[in-house]
Amino acid sequence: MASGQYPSTSLADTLRHQRVGVALSTGFFGFYHHAGVLRALAESGIRPLKLSGASAGAMVAAMYASGLTPTQIGEALLGVTRPDFWDLHLPWGRTGFGLLAGHRFRGQLSRVLKVHRFEDCPVPVVVAATNVDSGRVTYFSSGPLISAVYASCAFPYLLAPITIDGQRYLDGGVGEKTPLVPFLKDTTIDVVLISYMPASLGRKKERAPGFRGFIPPLSSFFMDTPLQEREERDRVAVELLEKEGKRVIYLSPPRVSLGPFTLQRASRALEQGYRGALKLLRSP
User: Fold this and answer.
1) What is the CA radius of gyration of the chain?
2) Per-residue pLDDT for 99 more than 80?
């Protein structure tokens, strides 16, 4: 065969013959992006044997692990409107500060998840949350699923921390960007795919005009642990995974900026994640 005529194999072709785990990173309202990535994986014939997730990634990982298909996940997410989870209340409680009571959010989880315990999930899943008192990340893989997912999604100052077994927990993204530790000693996984939330597509860097320019974005309150430090933890975890003989691949297509007041962009965010991931999977 002449030079330059060797057949190319796509990333998806390679992954179909591997034992794949998927880690879904944190990302403010990144549910739709992750759902799009999982849809691209499914259409490429890639079936994760295990998932992990933190924050938005935890919710989508739990939905998939409970038995929902990526298409069903997308449909469920697109059917949610702000009043479905926006239950403002007096923000001070015994567990901490939170603008939302969280009852509606937990109600949505109860309605959408097909099972409510880790042990009943058809696909193993690990959910990362941050222990408020110790500052350490905890990985939940057994017991009640809804409380663990709520803890991982308890965005600081938006949702109050939750108490589990006498300990307070909040957003898994406070401690780390991507939960990779659950795959370190897992001998059933050969490749770890990271659905990583990059910088938002089209995010404006300039200050908004007038009074709005003095109002910090809601996401700025999230940076209790600097992004650089959380990314460094990811880098170290990737090195450890590779030392264990596992291949690590980032799927990081551009994403659409999204928040509780911009849910009209949700379908675009899902489509962006899907098409971007599909393009990467079809590449050599």
Assistant:
1) 19
2) yes
Tokens linked to 274:
């899907």
**pLDDT band per the 50, 70, 90 thresholds, residue 65:** very high
Q: What mean pLDDT comes out for the span 32-45?
A: 97
For residue 52, what are its two tokens?
């992990």
Tokens of 181: 């530790």
- What's the whole-number mean pLDDT along residues 157-175? 93
Q: Are the C-beta atoms of residues 111 and 128 closer than 8 Å to each other?
A: no
Stretch 128-150: mean pLDDT:
96
Q: If you search the block for the tokens 């969280």, which residue do you land on?
A: 102
Q: Cα-flanking dihedrals φ and ψ of residue 195, to 5°? A: -85, 100
Do the Cβ atoms of 12 and 282 come closer than 8 Å? yes
Alpha helices in 44-166 (DSSP H): 56-65, 70-78, 103-112, 145-153
Contact 73, 57 (CB under 8 A): no
* 85 touches 263 (CB < 8 A): no
Q: Which residues, at least 6 apart from 254, have a Cβ–Cβ distance to it below 8 Å?
A: 198, 201, 272, 276
Lowest mean pLDDT among 176-185, 210-219, 226-235: 210-219
Task: Give the whole-angstrom CA distance, residue 37 versus residue 274.
Answer: 5
* Residue 200: predicted pLDDT: 56
